[in-house]
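INTERNAL AUDIT FORM
Audit reference: QA-55
Scope: verify that the stored structure record matches its stored sequence.
Auditor: D.O.
Record contents follow.
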Amino acid sequence: MTQSFTDRRSFVLGMAGLAGTAALGLPRTARAATPAMISEAIHLGLYMPLYAAMNGGFFEKHGLTPDLKTAGGIAQPVPALLSNAADFAVTGTGMSINATVEGAQMVNIAKIAGMISVWVVAKQGTSFNGPEDFAGKTIATLKFPSNTYTTPFYAMQKAGMDPEADVTWLQLPFGAQLQAVADGRADFATVFEWDASIGATQFDLEVVYSLGEALGPAVFSSTFVTKDFLDANPDAVQAYCNAIAEAEKQLHEDEQVFVDVATKEFPQVDPAVIAAARARFFGDVPLVPRNPVITEQEWRTLVEHEAGAGTLRADLPYEQMVDSSFAEKASQEFGLA
């Protein structure tokens, strides 16, 4: 099943309407530094630095009492910020841009996921050297706008292919992509973790390629706040970045921290899956960042990806959308590269 350009445009416009409606609420007012209300899009493994900061007590160490709520979708943290139901949003970075286009100025302050975390899974022994190998094949994905769809779509565009015509898309509900490869309905599945490691440990499949590593470092997920909140609460923003920086340092220095946090946060995931996944979180282009600083190159990689996939309303500049001063200060304090 192929996702049309019209459908992608409808999604982007719908997102804009959601942000615009929320922006009609009362202006953001200053709030005491604690508690810190955090809205995450979905409870996902790629938000590991957030969970490590919470489990390690780093927010409390820096003067914040975190209150984490799962919003239920990548767009939902935006209205949570604008209705004063949250101080910090943790979701796909592109959501900050779409909201800002509608007049709700967002500022990205910390990198949470440093790679576009999509892997290609296939039957054992399948050769796959790059997006060109998708040609003529069937790809099992989640439904648009999931990055399991948009990332291979963009990668094929970059490779000079026509993703609308050159492949067959099989858009499926959560949990169904691996079975589609196992039973032969699809040649490949493009998946997040934990699904990549579930495929390897439970379906006798093989992780044959990392689309994210091929695309390079990117601020795939970030923490952003409203500009009003940033201006009124710089100490809270600094404390938040300190907590994330400490967590990211700890995750890279102690392998057991990842296992312990993942096991606690995702008790439904088999420990063998968590063990298999760790290497993909800390690869050559690490999904868990070494520090929370958002670089201009990481911003450009993400924006070009989202624009190519049709989920972005505009290309807003790094200087407008990112304030890395807090993350830089935190990284210097904790000796992070």
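Auditor finding: record pair retrieved intact. The chain has 16 helices and ten strands.
Action required: none
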